[in-house]
Specification:
This protein is an all-alpha fold. It has a domain of 232 residues. Helix content is 69%, strand content 2%. The chain is built from 13 helices and two strands; from the N terminus they run H-H-H-H-H-H-E-E-H-H-H-H-H-H-H. A two-stranded antiparallel ribbon has the order 1-2. Helix 4 packs antiparallel against helix 5. The longest helix is centred in the last third of the chain and has 44 residues. The radius of gyration is 25 Å and the shape is globular. It starts with 19 loop residues before the first helix and ends with a helix.
């Protein structure tokens, strides 16, 4: 009879799990290599067009951060991108894919425009009411998809996408109708069809630092990112969202109603997009006027922010600033003679680069799991023989 206490331990019998530092180092190395590869391909594409990649990337940095007053513009753009991403994070945690934030953003902006141009009262009160109504408008618009999903089993991916095109028509009707939002002032500087301009008292306060200025909306967005991270990780509602998204059957057995919890997740997802639209309008987008092209693809890019951030609320802060830098930096490309569309190519390459590490890690975990399953099957077969 062998003594297990004195029997020599075989190190190869049980593989030691990798340390947290080693795993973190692997992630960092993968991200560095992926981003470096994307930038190298981008530089090659710029060189093919006969331009200098040093000038192009220098122009991007100047336009985003280094030139006077530029990083304030970058933070201004980052605020709505982050808010849209936070809404997407909540939806994904609950297993829902709301891809209609562009339309929900327009609904929030339209609500803000209505409060700012049609209602009378103290400016701060109207500003807060407009922001809250923007949340409600965006959430209610996403709630339509929730009703369709849980009453008629319509996938939210389809319904939220189609609702975007309806939102375009609603906003177009609003700003072309005199009794609704159309600016009827004959002395306005532009003859383009827009809403009336937001009064001075119903605009977001501006923070001025080191020669830069940006609306307080960015601070609001960052605070909400920490709130969302806390709620998802430390509260009962966050647990319900995560359980519904990871295993709906277990969630049902534990008494979590899919229609109530999922509907709340969709409402919050749309509400964050609506808040993004309200903050954009009150912060100065389109000259404090609602236009048909008001959203400028912020809703779609916010989805990419959440995707690249791995549905992590705090990581979304950094990714939102990165995407905002690409948008604001592209304005300086004209000085290099490069088409601004090259920024779209760089952005697409960066998105792919940032998605490579999670994919690689997933494939590694899957391969290890399959190898362990094969070993267990071999052991069972040997015992059976």
């Amino acid at each position: 009879m062998t003594d297990l206490a004195t029997e020599p331990f075989e190190a190869d019998a049980v593989p030691a799990p990798p340390s947290r530092w080693r795993a973190a180092l692997e992630w960092v190395v993968l991200y560095i290599l992926s981003i470096a590869g994307a930038l190298a391909i981008s530089a090659g594409l710029v060189a093919v067009t006969g331009n200098s990649w040093q000038k192009v990337f220098g122009a991007l940095l100047d336009g985003a951060f280094l030139a006077e007053g530029r990083w304030g513009n970058t933070l201004t753009v980052a605020a709505p991108l982050l808010l849209v991403a936070l809404g997407m994070v909540i939806g994904v945690k609950a297993g829902l894919f709301n891809i209609g934030q562009e339309g929900q953003l327009l609904m929030g902006a339209m609500a803000m425009a209505f409060v700012g141009t049609k209602l009378a009262g103290p400016g701060p009160v109207l500003l807060v009411f407009g922001l809250v109504l923007g949340v409600v408008a965006g959430g209610a618009y996403a709630g339509i998809a929730g009703v369709m999903k849980y009453r008629r089993n319509v996938p939210e991916v389809i319904s939220t996408l189609l609702l975007v095109f309806i939102a375009y028509q609603i906003v177009g009707y609003a700003i072309t109708t005199d009794w609704f939002l159309r600016d009827t002032d004959p002395d306005r500087p532009s003859r383009a069809v827009t809403s009336a301009i937001m009064p001075d008292g119903i605009r977001l306060p501006v923070i001025r630092m080191f020669g830069n200025e940006f609306p307080i909306g960015f601070v609001i967005a960052v605070i909400l990112a920490f709130v969302v991270a806390f709620v998802l990780a430390r509260t009962v509602w966050g647990f319900r969202f995560r359980l519904l998204g990871s295993n709906p059957k277990v969630a049902q057995k534990m008494g979590i109603a899919a229609n109530r919890t999922g509907g709340m997740a969709l409402f919050l997802s749309g509400g964050f997009a609506g808040l993004a639209g309200a903050i954009m309008l009150a912060g100065g987008s389109s000259g404090f006027r609602l236009t048909t092209g008001f959203a400028t693809n912020i809703g779609w890019q916010g989805l990419l922010v959440a995707l690249v951030a791995g549905s992590n609320a705090l990581v979304s802060i950094v990714v939102a600033i990165l995407f905002a830098a690409l948008r604001t930096g592209s304005g300086f490309l004209a000085s290099t003679g490069v088409d601004r569309k090259i920024v779209d190519v760089v952005q697409a390459l960066l998105v792919l680069a940032l998605l490579i590490p999670p994919a690689v890690m997933f494939l590694r975990r899957r391969r290890k799991a399959l190898a362990m399953a094969d070993e267990e099957i071999d052991i069972l077969n040997e015992e059976a023989v």
